[in-house]
Each structure stands twice: as structure tokens, then as C-alpha cells.
Amino acid sequence: MGVNGEISVIDMHTGGEPLRIVTSGYPPIKGDSILEKRRYAREYLDDYRRFLMFEPRGHYDMYGAILVPTTLPTADFGVLFIHNEGYSTMCGHAVIALGRYAIDHGLVEKQEPITRVGIECPCGLVEAFVEVKDGIAGAVSFRSVPAFLHSGDVQVEPEGFSPITVDVAYGGAFYGLANAADFGLDVRTSRTRDLVDAANAVSDAINKTIKLHHPDDDDLAYLYGTILTDGRDIYSDESTANICVFAASQVDRSPTGSGVTARLAAQAAKGLIDVGQPRTFESCIGTTFKGTVAEQTTCGQFPAVVVEVSGSANYSGKATFWKEEGDSVGAGFLLR
User: Fold this and answer.
1) The pTM of the whole model exceeds 0.85
2) Are residues 257 and 95 in contact, defined by beta-carbon separation less than 8 angstroms?
């Protein structure tokens, strides 16, 4: 189906990573559960995703959020995440932005000094905690679903590169974790194109080597992307940098909230960090999130942890979009 009518949005960014929040005009999304809604949107409403994410209204690395009703008694609303390839199961930078947005737009009753915002994501319930002072929302922390190391120290053979050892961890979505130095690269100084090529090669190799499994639902068992790191996984007061390449070669400008969760889960599983030890994670543009292993738990057969991630988001604008009759290019296109 094509896009009909007008769609209004508010744009934010978290650590430089965009979030386009749909405020009106999106068709109803059917489904009794959040994962059913995700499948319905993917099958029947994908023209709307392309309309909002692709040029001429978006760009290759645009990211979006569609608020939906929730059936969870502990959630204030649900959300579907959209990007250049499809529909994510979790997005930490979006949760941080939505925490502030929920306070500012009256989706929850604000309380000082901290307001809890329950958000049902496709991966499950995520709790955001928003700092509120004099009625103004500020920094946001969130605790996501149980995170775990799925496969540790696995040798893979990325096409065009020598064999390397990787981890695969879950932080609301599955990520490959690899040291950029194994490719002769530095996440802070190397060309983004070279980092993207290496990360994509790792993702392809993992998909050929490792069969993913999630105890809760098969819809969660897919590799979202690969995070190249600076190799600083042992606990330190100094920051550790990474770059996340996800979906169709999309580059996260933030440190990646679900990626920070996955990295900490892998570090905890390997005994490299203890509960309560805070770490600073740096993005490819130098913005930072704070991350802490809050508690130990389980997820099915996997030893798991609950991770707390903190950051802040800012507004960047608002718009109303439509497509004129006969404008085939206006349906959405991408150049890379």
C-alpha cells in the first residue's frame, strides 16, 4: 500500500544518533502482542517506514519510533523501532530520547527527582528513569531485558580478512563483538568506510558460523549487527570506544545503548567487570554513555545480567510530511 495523508513527527537525537518520533498520521498497527504488531508493520505498512526513513525526508542512517498501545500493566506505552532495513527489537538511544519525550509531552505524570517510564519494546519491558528538576526532564537511565553472552571466543573467517575471534552477546538485540585492531583499524581514527566494511564482514561470518537462539521468542534470534571495539574490555576508569554497524550497513552515531548492554554482558560473563562498576562508553563521534552491571539474573539457560545505561537526548525539530500525487521519487529512495 502507498502512503496516504500527512504524517507529523518530532525529531530528537541521543549522542548524535537521530530519532524521528511519529506523533500523528501513521495507520493503526494490528496485533495482540508487540511482536505481532512488529510483524504486521513489516508485512503491511512498510511503505510508511521507507517514506519516513529514506530520502528525500530522511537519509541512509535515519532512525525512527512509532508509539503503540501496550498490553503490559507495568508499561506506559509500547514502541516499534524503524531504520533503513526494517524493525529492531531494542534501541537504547531511542529509549533515552523517549524517556524525556514522555515527560515533556505528558505521556506519564512527572515526579521529582526521578520519574519512571515503562516502555514495552519488542524485546520486552524496558524501564527508563528520567531526572526531573523544577518540572524539566533531564538525563535518562534505563534498565533493559536480561542480557547475556550467547557465544564466547568463537573463531570466524570474515571474507577478505584473516580468521579472528569474536563474541556474540544479547542486549535486547544480538551483536557480534570484535576488536578493530584485528583488522589493523582504530575505532577512533580509522575511516568509517573501512570500519563498516570490516564490521559487515564479521556479521556475514557470524551468520555463517553461529546459530542464534533466544529463550523467549524465535523473532528475537537474529544478528542485528557487529560492534567493533578498541579492545579495552577489562574494567578501567578510562573510557572504551566502539562503533556499531547494524541493519543494512547503518552506523550508530551514539555509543549504542543496546550495544553497551551487550558489551557489558559479555564482559561480566568473562569476569572482566563486577556488579556496580561503572564504565564510560565512547561513540565514533566522541559522545558517551555510562554503563553499569546492575544485577545478575538468568535468561532461559543463559547466565545473564541486568544492565543500566545512562545518557541524554535533545530535540532537533518537528515536521509534517506528505507525498504529492504522481511523485514516485517521494515514496523514498536511498543513495550510499
Assistant:
1) yes
2) yes
